[in-house]
Amino acid sequence: HTTRWPSNSPSFQFVTLNALGLVEAGFNVYLFVENNTPHGVEQVIEHKFGLIPPKELHVFKINPMRLFRSHKHFLNKSYAYIKILSRTVDFDAVVTRANGFLPYLPEIKDELKTLVFFESHDFYADLSKRFDIINKKRFRAREMIEQQYIPQLDGVFCVQSSQMKFYREQFPNQKCFLVHTGLWKAPEAPLAEKDEKLLAYIGSLDKHKGVMNVLEVLAKLNDPEVHLLIIGGKTRGEIRKVYKTAKKLNIKDQVSVTGWIPYREISRHLRKVRFGVVPLENTFFNQFLTSPLKIFDFFANGIPVIANDLDSVSEFVTNREQGYIVKTSDTDSWVDTIKYAFSQKEEYPAMRKGVIKKAETLTWEQRGRLIGNIIHKYKEG
After folding, report:
1. Which of 20, 88, 132, 366 has the lowest CB atom count within 10 Å?
2. Is residue 126 within 8 Å of residue 67, measured between CB atoms?
3. pTM: predicted TM-score of the whole model, two decimal places
4. Picking from 1-10, 23-32, 218-227, which range would have the lowest pLDDT averaged per residue?
5. CA distance 218 to 253
6. Integer Cα distance of 117 and 213 in angstroms
7. Is 175:156 a contact under the CB 8 Å cutoff?
């Protein structure tokens, strides 16, 4: 995992919970991360997730170079540690989500006689399909790496059906597997009815996430009883921008921003939330590649969502079963959908049950078992 550990990046949440899910599924897991803390693994996981790390999870924190950051340094160190560990550990498989580590996998496969997989959270194998990338030269090296090394692997793990389709078209002779990302634990039963007109957004405040569009929707609703809770904001500057925009739209009293908070604190903030909002803009990445963790955070708390009509969303949300899909992403359509959502109290309990039913199929432990089944089928021939 090349993003610093811990960090405010969603990928920190992903790799840690993914590793814990694999442990829950019965694996010993060796996780290699770029160190970003003086604290121990136990302290980080307990503080960020409210969980006690099991003895089967082994986190190797590789310190970055002092003068400048180098992914190459981290990748070389990870490769060296894997080779050393292989003297005493019989690895079932080595999995990476780092494009830059792909060149190491064929060597690991040959030397360690183990399975190797690429878990992709993007798609660079054919940049001609990426209409969202203007400066393609910047990503040409990633394209060449995927083209050269993916055919040499045992398989590719994909997080979306549409993403898997791209990889299967590009590599018709390679095995690709759909392995959805997940949530830690599904709610056991529908929670008490929520009467507040409270919406919530979880995640980064980057433009393509669409959170600023929700502020415009809130202003156009012209209903002072509707409030928006934003769980996110990596910097004070980002948070100030939200409040400045809310003030300009005359809705400052209807908007609150928590800043970036540990994963374990999210549920506490969502107790009164009636709907989660997922206003992803229609970009190539959002449409076909992303696995929106914010949906899983809402589902883990039994909360239906209101979301734009994207392939990445419809993978998990069926209209009026786990929430409402906004067919056209313009402001007026969002306003109409939110008004309808708050007016339909008879539909809400059924949607919450639909959320819980869906959540039960999307836990990290189940993801770990699916990966385990794939690996065991390979080993059995």
Report:
1. 88
2. no
3. 0.94
4. 1-10
5. 11
6. 38
7. yes
